[in-house]
């Protein structure tokens, strides 16, 4: 009798404990789970590179896709006339040179010699004309060309000429996008759908096996224009949805690289015996945005007070684990004309924060809310730091975390006071960010802050038509200074692009848009 | 003469709970650290003499945070449970004693409410009230009384037919007096046992909601948000999630032992 009672007590206790552990297992379940699939082992095969990615490739249509799972497969197959390097600088790619007329209206590209598609056919200027025209005609274009293009022509086999109705300096950077890759004229006689199911491009790799809900296997393009490249014969995009799994597979050599390793656990990969980390600067800046239409945050002194109260480098330290630059300006360093190295931001000065608030309409402080999407640990930590910074000057901030769908619909409806979100350049031109974040008449209304300064608007329009050079640099310097002073947003940090690879991997080129180039990769 | 003794499970549970309550009350008073003060320079330190539980991502001392969160969560657990307990017990007494239409209304209501999954209802309520403690309180007010009403109703109904109740009525005692003086003391112990085990479920709910970002919000420390904070470090910095998680488990065990012990004690009488 006594015994059974003890047993039942034990059982109840265990049941209760199990119930309590639920909370922990909830936390753990996204970390574990999934199964280890050995088989596509990379070790032993010297010429296969297996890349762990968290999402499968679902479409290879370069004009309609924008998400990285597809974009970074597309850019292995199709290549544009111009591209960009590790620092975000524009470089000639399929074009061996380009010329922009003095009036900024005519862009002339000369194709490289001996360019071939992966099926062995020559690349001509007609293919480039077809590609750009087809992109312009695409109704569902994800990254459409915004330049006012008058005509795209091929004066001869090697020359592509783009004429504009009005000058637009960011065109070159836009053309560097993966979405302006060159496809064969008329899809080589196939239908569009058939073509993108089995695409032919000039890129270093060709699709050989493709499971739209799983892995994608590329083989080397034997006709690649860069002599003797790529160095690997096979490239496998392996779907590993769980981050912990990916790390384990890298450690054991089941994969050779991880596309998006979590920063939190990077030190074990950096210091691992068999693993290392490759980085590049990014075009992303995580940022606090103020709704400047809000009664409190329409006051520039309030915004400056909060920016002064916050210590941005603390935020960077807390969330980036040594893999980010504290942002001082709206343009990340890997974008030309960024004044990251010279600008003095409104930052980390409690006395000045109090002075600013005293000059505002709310000298005694006020209550407000920070809106953020739940499930983002870095954002939640950053929000807590702003909350305690604000508390020091008498501003009481409440953190409101909502699911991502609600978050998006709310900030797009201007239904927030402060939010944390990421700003990203689509292509390596200052305009990509400035236009999106400072044009009150644009589609995003200054990144949904409603920030409006006619002087800035005028300068940014002028910068769009000013040729690259000192004059354009001066315009962007002035815009960045104004945005830093008027604080419609607090740029926090620019994370590095980080890829984890096996130690025996060399030649991986990490790009600021989070993609990589594999043509120089060697294993062993 | 039967010798009454405290079941060992009950003693163990009470001792464990008392130790936990004492710890969460005393640690924040003695600790040199403020549970909400960030110190980025000492972020994510493993447990040491300086920080026995280590520190979290913002460099906050986890020992004092676990204790401060314990104050919040345990107080919330007791506070939130109180009203549903009173309402449910009263409803159960009335339904069990009178039967008839009061019984039908209460049964219908509890059947209808119990059809809603608890967490779904929380999400809906949180959507209306905004995240925070109000949502938990309201949801539990709506759902929490049912289990007490059902338990007490059953016990009361079985007593209501007994002769001594009938004779009390004949002797002219009012219904109120019979319910409060005769019935309640007899069914109370059963309600308390249910209360203790229900608290475990409530604590898990509070922690889960905090974890999901629907419950207690920063800067107020809470075990659920603390577990969520450490989620990304489970593989490399175990202490950030595991220590607040362990606190939840310990309270769960203590309450389960008490519930079980009370059950044993009741059977002995």
From TrEMBL, chain A:
Residues 1-30 form the signal peptide. InterPro entries: Peptide/Ni-bd, SBP_5, SBP_5_CS, SBP_5_dom. GO terms for molecular function: peptide transmembrane transporter activity. The keyword Hydrolase does not apply. PROSITE patterns: PROKAR_LIPOPROTEIN, SBP_BACTERIAL_5. Keywords: Signal, Transport. GO terms for cellular component: ATP-binding cassette (ABC) transporter complex; periplasmic space. It is a lipid-anchor. Residues 90-441 form the Solute-binding protein family domain. Its main location: membrane. Pfam families: SBP_bac_5 (PF00496). It is found in: Cell membrane. GO terms for biological process: peptide transport. The keyword Transport applies. Belongs to the bacterial solute-binding protein 5 family. This is Peptide ABC transporter substrate-binding protein. It comes from Bifidobacterium cebidarum.
From TrEMBL, chain B:
InterPro entries: BP-dependent_transpt_permease, MetI-like, MetI-like_sf, OppC_N. One of its GO terms (biological process) is transmembrane transport. It is found in: Cell membrane. The chain crosses the membrane at residues 12-33, 74-98, 105-127, 133-152, 191-214, 238-258. PROSITE patterns: ABC_TM1. Residues 70-259 form the ABC transmembrane type-1 domain. GO terms for cellular component: plasma membrane. It is a multi-pass membrane protein. Its main location: membrane. Keywords: Cell membrane, Membrane, Transmembrane, Transmembrane helix, Transport. Belongs to the binding-protein-dependent transport system permease family. This is Nickel ABC transporter permease. It comes from Bifidobacterium cebidarum. The lineage of its organism: Bacteria, Bacillati, Actinomycetota, Actinomycetes, Bifidobacteriales.
């Amino acid at each position: 009798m006594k015994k059974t009672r003890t047993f039942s007590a034990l059982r109840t206790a265990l049941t209760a404990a199990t119930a309590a552990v639920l909370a922990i297992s909830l936390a753990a379940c996204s970390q574990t789970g999934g199964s280890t699939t050995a088989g596509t082992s990379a070790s032993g095969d010297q010429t296969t590179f297996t890349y762990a990615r968290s999402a499968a490739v679902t479409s290879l249509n370069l004009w309609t896709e924008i998400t990285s799972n597809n974009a970074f497969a597309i850019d292995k197959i199709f290549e544009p006339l111009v591209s960009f390097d590790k620092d975000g600088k524009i470089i000639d790619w399929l074009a061996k040179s380009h010329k922009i007329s003095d009036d900024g209206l005519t862009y002339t590209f000369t194709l490289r010699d001996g360019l071939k598609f992966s099926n062995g056919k020559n690349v001509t200027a007609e293919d480039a004309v077809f590609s750009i025209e087809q992109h312009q005609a695409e109704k569902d274009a994800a990254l459409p060309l915004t330049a006012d293009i008058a005509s795209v022509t091929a004066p001869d086999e090697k020359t592509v000429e783009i004429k504009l109705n009005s000058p637009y300096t960011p065109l070159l950077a836009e053309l560097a996008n993966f979405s302006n890759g060159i496809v064969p004229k008329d899809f080589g006689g196939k239908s569009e759908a058939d073509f993108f199911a089995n695409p032919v491009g000039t890129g270093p790799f060709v699709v050989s096996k493709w499971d739209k809900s799983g892995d994608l296997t590329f083989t080397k393009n034997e006709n690649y224009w860069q002599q003797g490249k790529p160095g690997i014969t096979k490239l496998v995009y392996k779907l590993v949805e769980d981050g912990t799994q990916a790390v384990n597979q890298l450690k054991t050599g089941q994969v050779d690289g991880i596309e998006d390793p979590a920063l939190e656990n990077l030190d074990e990969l950096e210091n691992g015996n068999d693993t290392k980390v490759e980085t590049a600067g990014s075009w992303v800046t995580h940022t606090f945005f103020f709704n400047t239409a809000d009664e409190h945050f329409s006051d520039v002194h309030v915004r400056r007070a909060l920016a002064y109260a916050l210590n941005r480098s603390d935020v960077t330290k807390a969330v980036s684990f040594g893999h980010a630059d504290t942002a001082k300006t709206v343009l990340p360093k890997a974008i030309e004309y960024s004044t990251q190295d010279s600008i003095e931001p409104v930052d980390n000065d409690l006395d000045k924060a109090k002075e600013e608030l005293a000059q505002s309409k709310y000298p005694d402080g006020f209550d407000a809310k920070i809106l953020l999407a739940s499930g983002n640990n870095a954002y939640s930590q950053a929000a807590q730091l702003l909350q305690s910074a604000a508390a020091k000057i008498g501003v009481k901030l409440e953190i409101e975390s909502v699911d991502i769908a609600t978050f998006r619909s709310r900030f797009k409806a201007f239904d927030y006071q402060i939010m944390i979100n990421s700003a990203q350049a689509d292509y390596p031109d200052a305009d990509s960010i400035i236009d999106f974040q400072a044009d009150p008449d644009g589609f995003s209304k200054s990144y949904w802050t409603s920030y409006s300064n006619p002087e800035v608007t005028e300068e940014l329009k002028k910068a769009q038509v000013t040729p690259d050079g000192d004059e354009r640099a001066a315009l962007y310097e002035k815009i960045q200074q104004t945005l830093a002073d008027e604080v419609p947003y607090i740029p926090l940090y620019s994370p590095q692009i980080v890829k984890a690879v096996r130690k025996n991997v060399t030649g991986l080129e990490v790009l600021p848009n989070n993609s990589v180039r594999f043509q120089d990769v060697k294993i062993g | 003469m039967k010798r009454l003794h405290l079941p060992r499970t009950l003693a163990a549970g009470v001792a464990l709970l008392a130790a936990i309550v004492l710890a969460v009350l005393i640690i924040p008073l003695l600790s040199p650290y403020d549970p909400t003060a960030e110190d980025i320079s000492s972020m994510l330190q493993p447990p040491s003499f300086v920080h026995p539980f280590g520190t979290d991502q913002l460099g906050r001392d986890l020992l004092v945070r676990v204790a401060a969160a314990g104050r919040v969560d345990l107080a919330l657990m007791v506070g939130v449970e109180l009203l549903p307990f009173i309402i449910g017990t009263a409803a159960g007494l009335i339904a069990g004693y009178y039967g008839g239409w009061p019984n039908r209304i209460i049964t219908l209501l509890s059947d209808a409410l119990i059809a809603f999954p608890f967490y779904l209802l929380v999400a809906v309520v949180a959507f209306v009230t905004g995240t925070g403690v109000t949502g938990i309180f309201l949801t539990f007010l709506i759902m929490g009384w049912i289990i007490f009403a059902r338990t007490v109703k059953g016990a009361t109904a079985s007593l209501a037919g007994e002769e001594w109740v009938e004779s009390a009525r004949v002797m002219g005692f009012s219904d109120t007096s019979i319910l409060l003086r005769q019935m309640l003391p007899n069914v109370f112990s059963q309600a308390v046992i249910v209360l203790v085990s229900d608290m475990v479920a409530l604590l898990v709910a509070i922690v889960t909601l905090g974890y999901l970002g629907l419950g207690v919000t920063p800067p107020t420390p809470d075990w659920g948000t603390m577990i969520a904070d450490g989620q990304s470090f489970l593989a490399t910095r175990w202490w950030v999630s595991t220590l607040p998680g362990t606190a939840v488990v310990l309270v769960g065990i203590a309450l389960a032992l008490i519930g079980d012990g009370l059950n044993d004690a009741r059977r002995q009488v």
